[in-house]
Structures are given as structure tokens and as C-alpha cells.
Amino acid sequence: MSFLSGVVEGFYGRPWTMEQRRELFRREQKWGLNAYLYAPKDDHKHRMYWRDLYTPQEAGELQNLIASANEHHVEFIYAISPGLDITFSNPKEMATLKRKIEQVWGFGCRSFAVLFDDIEPEMCPADKDAFSSLASAQVHMTNELYKHLRKPKIFLFCPTDYCETFCTPSVAQSPYLLTVGEKLYPEIDVLWTGPKVVSKVISVESIEEVTQVIKRAPVIWDNIHANDYDPQRMMLGPFKDRPVELIPKLRGMLTNPNCEFELNFVAIHTLATWCQSYSHGGNNRIVKDYIPQEALQLALSEWLVEFSVQDPLGGGQPKRGADEEVPMQTDACYVPGPRDKLLFTAEPLTLDDLILLSDLFYLPYEHGPTALKMLQELHWLKSNSNSVGFVPGSSDRNTGKDTEWRARAEEFDKMCEAVVQMFNRLSNVSNRQILYDLYNFICDIKSGVTMARDFVKTIGRQTTLSDQQKIDDPEPWGFRGGVSGEFQRMLPNHGYKDVFHHSFRPKAYIIRPYTQSDQSAVQQISQEVMCEETHGSPATKGAMSLGDR
Ligand code: GDL
After folding, report:
1. What's the average model confidence in pLDDT over 415-434?
2. Quick check: is 118 catalytic?
3. Ligand 1 centroid vs 149 CA: distance in angstroms?
């Protein structure tokens, strides 16, 4: 198999079900992908209790799963992660590892991986005596297993230093990677996540560099669509910022996507489009343009169809064949009278809804265009709040600026309304499997947007007394995130990036005397401060006196 393409189930959290994995294989085959790396961090027998053999029931399930992968021409690669507690120098440990892998071999699996990601790099005293470094110990054990299995065609190794940021002092000079390059059998492939754990961009040059060191083309384990590190995010943007020219320089590309199975339609579909952009036609290589926005559009159009499928995986409401009798329901033939309430009818989900959804939950380092626009507008409305007569007596009141502010506030409100409508249509879709995977995220964004919307109304003085009461004494969804949320709010500018970018970097200021021309800027700052302190409620009096002072 020349280029491995597909999915690694390698995230933390609830592993996918067998039925979801079978569905994954169907999709992979349909979209031309060929590999699946089984590495769910929280499958006990993959990592924490790697020594334990599978029970007969588990064995049966895995055997069926592997058969299903074969039927769909998807290479099933079983990964084991013994690194948390293995003693490399103890022969019993090697025997245990072999026995475990032999069991999986017995299930019909012929491709394997040994993973050493996310472990302590410290060796125990016994290993320190036996090996010159952690890399030597890991490589020794991996080579041994590879030989024992009579050199499987596909055998992967995930180093502990699996991305550039983990390498000291650099990729080119990393003793760890140099050992891997020197000592790991050349037929064993090496996994690599790129410059970072979650890489924004993976450039051709960066791959050429690591290839030199590890002496083979890596298989990318791509975390671009992973969401196990942030419960408020899912990644619905397109596979991007990995140039198609990478393909001939790689041994494979596997994506480790969102924990929620149904949220990966876009991630996997766009990866497949990316893979198809490069193919070998006889002696010629064919490189098609890969345009992420187009790939996304294609994926979303196909995903839209899935939303109207009735309960594909058999959960939720019972599945009904066309010839099955519909159970009698008391309200099944209820027809409202002329003066009765109309029956609820669900509006169908639209492609625009899905585009908006993807924009709101795009990629780790990037928001989609509409989300960006909403953030920019909110920022503008907040920064120009003095244009709406916020400061009594301000000369801006009812001027062109005031009109512009109100027009933009109205536009912002419409964008917020579109999010609420999207939520309503999503919550009515037939495919409850997708909905349930989406639910927490769409609830969260709806609350976030509603709060922003209320805030803008407050600045525009469009709040009623009851709105004001809600702001003064909010329900718990007015201050979300629990203790973690509190921590975030207490940090400068609410986040890690800003803590390091703003607080600890020296800055140069020019100090000069105050002049008359500074007045409006000073008043604006004082308003913003007061606004923040009162969580958005107009504190005009205080702001006035502070600004004036
Ligand atoms: C990681 C883990 C992976 C996890 C991902 C995103 C690798 C090789 N390992 O470091 O299990 O899902 O980050 O949180 O990527």
C-alpha cells in the first residue's frame, strides 16, 4: 500500500462504538480512503491496561470489526500504547506484549502500531542500566516486536517526540529522533504531527527536515480536527494548510478528528478530497488544485442529505420500514380545528445553516468568515458605543455615527437571529444521531450569541426593565464555564495566549502631557472600563465622572 490515507481514532474520551466504526469504514471506502488506526486513548486495553487480554466477548467484537474493515478495503491497524508503565529491560514485559499482539493477530489483524505519545520521558532505574536512552529502549522493543510478527507490511511507531516543539534543541539536532532514525528498522514507519501537536500549517520544508533525521517519510497523525482538548469546540472547517505537494513526500496522512463520531463528516470528506488532488496516472503525477472552501462546500452539501436520514445507527426513535405498520398513536390523526393551535411543523435544515454552523466551529486557529464578521462587528459596536448617546450630552448623538451604529447593530442582530434559527432547524432534524453529537455545541453557541445580542441591545439602550433584571441577576447560563470559566475570566484578556503575549513581554510607552484632542479617546477608555466592570450595563454616571476627571 503506497500511501496510507484515513483516520486514526486516537483521541482522549469515549471511544467510538463498533457500529460507528463500521459506518466509518463504509464512508472511507466510498470516499477512497484506505486506512484506520485503532488507538482510542481511553480503551483500557489499548493503553492503561495494555497487558490485559481481550475477553471472549470483546474478542468477538474486534474480530467482526476487523472483518468489516477488510470488506471495505480499509487497512485495520491495531495500535498498542505500553509506554505509561512498561519496563523495557524486563523480558517478561516483552513476552506480555507479544502475547497481547498475538491475540489481536488471531482476530485477523495484520497491521500494527506501537505508540509512545504522551508519556513521561523518565526511565526507571532498571531501564537506565540497560539502555543508553529512552529512544534506544523504545526502538529496541519495537524492532523486537516487528521481527516477532515476521515483519508486517504495515507497522507504525509513534515517538514520544512526535512534533517539532517536543524536540530539543531542534528537529535536526534531537538526540531522540536521531536515535530513531539510526536504529529503528527502516521498514517501520514513524508517526509525526507536524510543527506542533495541533499544527496550523504543515509545510513541505518541515517534512523534508524531519525526513532527513528519521531517515524515512513520516505518516502524519493530524490533529487539525481533534477537539478532545476543549469541550466547547468542534472542528467543522475543511482540511487545510497542508499543501497537496506534501503527498509524494509522505508515507501517509491520518486524521485524528472530533471525539463525537458524527461531527467528522467534513473532516474526513475534505481529507478525501485532498488525497484525491494528487494521484499517479501511469508515469505522470496528476496534481489538481485543492481549494479548501470548495472542498468544504462539497462536504457540506453531502452532509446536508445525512441530516434527513431517519436514525441511521438504530438509536433514538425506533426504525420503521416502509411496509411496517405505524403504531397507533392517540394524536396521529389529530387535525386542529379552525380556532385551535396549529400543529408544529419543522422547517427543513438548509445548506446555509450548515455553512453557518461550520463557520462558527471552524478550525483550531481560524474562525469561518461569518463567525469572524460577527466578532468584528461586535468589537466595532462595543468600541463605538459612545456613538449612541451613551455619554449624556455627547455631540455624537443622532449624528451620522449614531445612525451607522444603529444600522450595524441591527445587522448584528440579524446575524444572531440566523444562529438561533439554525439551532431551531437543527433541533428538528430526523437524524437524531447527528443532532445529539451536535447538541452541546449548538446550545453553547446559542447562549453565547444571545448574550452578545443582549449586550448590544444594552449599549443601544434597547433593553426593557425585565431584560435589565436578567442582566443584574443572571441565570447560571449568564456566567458559564464553572471554575475553569472563572479562571479564564481572571486571566489577562481571558486566555493563555494573551497571558504570555501581554503580561510578560516588555513594552515601550511614550509618556506625554494630556491635550484637549485626547478627550474623546480618554472618555471612550473610561466607558469601556466601566462597561466591563458592570458587565455591560450602562454605568453612565460613573463613566462620566471618571472620564471627566
Ligand atoms: C495528542 C495525542 C492525541 C490527542 C491530541 C489532541 C498525538 C500523537 N497524541 O498529543 O491522543 O488526541 O494530542 O489533544 O497526537
Report:
1. 97
2. yes
3. 27
The pLDDT tens digits for 168-180 are 999 999 999 999 9
Residues 139 and 103: beta-carbon distance below 8 Å? no
E strand spans, 60-167: 75-80, 111-115, 155-158
- Residue 123 CA to ligand 1 centre (angstroms): 22
Looking at the CA of residue 39, tell me the nearest atom of ligand 1: 11
pLDDT (tens digit, 9 = 90+) per residue, 371-406?
A: 999 999 999 999 998 888 654 455 545 678 889 999
- Between CA 198 and CA 204 the distance in angstroms is 17
pLDDT given for residue 156 in this prediction:
98
Q: Which residue has the least CA distance to atom 9 on ligand 1? A: 117
Q: Please state, in angstroms and rounded to a whole number, the distance separating the CA atoms of residues 261 and 259.
A: 6
Give the residue from 58, 77, 70, 69 showing the smallest Cα distance to 22.
69
pTM value?
0.87
Q: Is the pLDDT of residue 140 over 60?
A: yes
The response to whether residue 41 sits with its C-beta less than 6 Å from ligand 1 reads yes
Tell whether ligand 1 has an atom less than 6 A from the beta carbon of residue 223.
Answer: yes
pLDDT of residue 343: 87
All cell numbers assigned to 377: 462587528
C-alpha cell at 249: 513526500
11 Cα nearest atom in ligand 1: 12
The cell for 9 is: 481514532
Domains and CATH numbers, the chain: 4-306 (3.20.20.80), 351-485 (1.20.58.240), 507-549 (no CATH)
b/e 144-181 (16+ beta carbons within 10 angstroms → b)? ebbeebeebebbbbbbbbbbbebbeeebeebebbbbbb
Q: Which residue has the cell 482522549?
A: 12
The number of beta carbons lying within 10 Å of the beta carbon of residue 405 is 24
CA distance 58 to 223: 28
